[in-house]
Amino acid sequence: MTSEPSSPPSTRPSRAGTPLHFKDVLLDALKRYKHEDESEAHQIYRQSAGHKARTLSFPRLSTLMKKLFRNPTPWFNRCHILFRPAQANGFNYASSHEWSNLGQGAPEVGPIPDAPDRPVKVEYDYDALEYAPTTGVKKLREAVAHLYNATYRQGKASQYTYENVCIVPGGRAGLSRVAAVIGDVYCSYQVPDYTAYDQMLSAFKRLVPVPTALEPENHYNLDIGQVKKDIRTQGLAVIIASNPRNPTGQVIRGNDLKELVDISRESATTVILDEFYSWYIYYENEKNIGKSISSAEYVDDVNKDSVVIVDGLTKNWRLPGWRICWVIGPKNLITALSQSGSFLDGGANHPLQLAAIPLLDPEHVHKEKVALQKHFKMKRDHVLKRLKAIGLEVKIPPVATFYIWLNLENLPDPINNGLTFFEELLKEKTIVIPGIFFDINPAHRRNLFSSPCHHFVRLSFGPPLEDLDQGIDAIARVLRKAKKEGMRSFGHSYKKSIEGPASLATHV
C-alpha cells in the first residue's frame, strides 16, 4: 500500500488554497501565543515600573526591554504607561484635537445642554492666600455635610456635621490618607476595579490584599452573601470598592447597598466606598432623572457605622482640574485623616475650596444632575449603537459611570486582547485603556494572559460627542484592516519611544 504524497516541509496549503511558506506558518503560530513572554505588547507592559513579576522570570526577553522610569515611586500612575506610547506616536496635549482619547478618566468639562453655567472665575480675599486646614475649610465641610443630609438623610436622627467631613486634594489623596491610618488588616477588593487600589495596596503594606473576582455571568455584581462568608472565614476587616463601578459601569444599589452598609455595623468591618460616579446613573424612567446613589442613605449612626465615603468635584461636578474632594466618615476617622494629611499631601487648594461652596447648594446640584444624566445617557446610547453597527455589541452595557467594558474575545488573534488592541489603535490616533490595568493584582504574580481582564478594554464616553465618533471611526478602521489584510501586520513593530527608531526605543 502506498501512502498519499505529503506536502513539502517548507510549505502547507492555506485555507484559501494558496501555499504558505514556513515563515508564514511560524507567524501564524506566534499569533496564537498563550503566554505573555511571546507578546511584544505584554512584554512592554510588564517591564514598566511597578509591573515586573515578583515570582516569574522572563529568560526570552530582549535586552532592549528596559525600565521606562529609573526611579519609580510606589504610587506609580498607570496612565504614564499609556501616554508615553501615545506621545511616541504623535500625541501631545497641544494638538490633542487630532486624537480621540477614549481612555480619559474624566468627563467633558465644557457647557452641556440645560446645565448651570461653568465656574470660570474665582475671586478671593487675602486670607485665602494662607494654607487651609488639613481637614479643609470649615464652611466647605459644612456645605458637604448639608448636601448629604438633604439628599440622602432626610428624617434620620443621625446627621452629618462638618466634623464628619475631611476635604482632600483629589480622590487618590483621600484614599492614601485613609490607608495611612488603618492598622494591620485583611482588605477585600474586587477584580476588575479602579487601578488606584492596586497602587494603594502595594504602597501600604499593613493592608493585606484579599481579592474577589467579579463574574460577567452575574453582571459583575458583588455577591453580598459571599462577602459575609469571607468576613467570617477570612477575617476581613476592610472592604474597598468603587460604586458605581469603574470600569464595568455597574452599580450596587437598593437592598444590596443597604446590606453592604449593614455589614459595617454587624461585623465591625470598615466599608470604604469610592462614590465618584454617584450622579452618573442612567434611568429609563424619566421621573427618576436627577436621583443619585450613595451609601450615606443607609448609614444608621454617622459616628458609629464604619462607612467611609470618598467623592468630590472631579467627576460629578465635571471639575477634575480643581482637585477638590472629600472623605466622609465617623468623627474619629476625620481627626486621624487630619494628622495623616499633614505629612501626605498638606491639604487642598484654599481659594478653590471657597469657590466650591456655592456649587454644593442642593438646588444647584439638582440642576447639574439632571443635565448630566440626560447628556451622558445620550452619549452612552450613541456609542453603544455605533459599536454594535461595527460588530462590537456590548453584552453588559453600563448602567452607570461613563465607561464601557468592552469584551474583545470574539475578535481574531492577536487583537482580541486589550494590550494589542490598545497598541494598534495608537496607530490610528486613538487611546483606549487595556483591561489588564483594572486587574488589581498587587503581587504581580499572575501571567497576564490568565487575567480575567485580558480580553477587555475600557472605553470612555466622557469626551465630547465628536471625539467619540472620531475614536469609533478609528476602531472601525482597525477591524476593516483585520478583515481585509489578515493578522500578519498586527501585534508587533510598535513605536515605543519619542526618541530614535521604534526598533531601538523602549516604553510601556
TrEMBL record:
Select a single GO molecular function from the record's annotations and give it: pyridoxal phosphate binding
Sorted UniProt keywords: Aminotransferase, Pyridoxal phosphate, Transferase
Q: Which Gene3D superfamilies match?
A: Type I PLP-dependent aspartate aminotransferase-like (Major domain)
Keyword Transferase present in the record's keywords: the answer is: yes
| Entry keyword annotation includes NADP | no
SUPFAM superfamilies the record matches? PLP-dependent transferases
Hey, what's the signal peptide range on this chain?
Answer: none
Pfam families linked: Aminotran_1_2
Q: Which cofactor does it need?
A: pyridoxal 5'-phosphate
Biological-process GO terms, alphabetical? amino acid metabolic process
Which ranges carry the Aminotransferase class I/classII large domain?
A: 100-475
Concerning its family, UniProt says: Belongs to the class-I pyridoxal-phosphate-dependent aminotransferase family.
This protein is called what?
A: PLP-dependent transferase
Species in which this protein is naturally found? Multifurca ochricompacta
Classification of source organism? Eukaryota, Fungi, Dikarya, Basidiomycota, Agaricomycotina
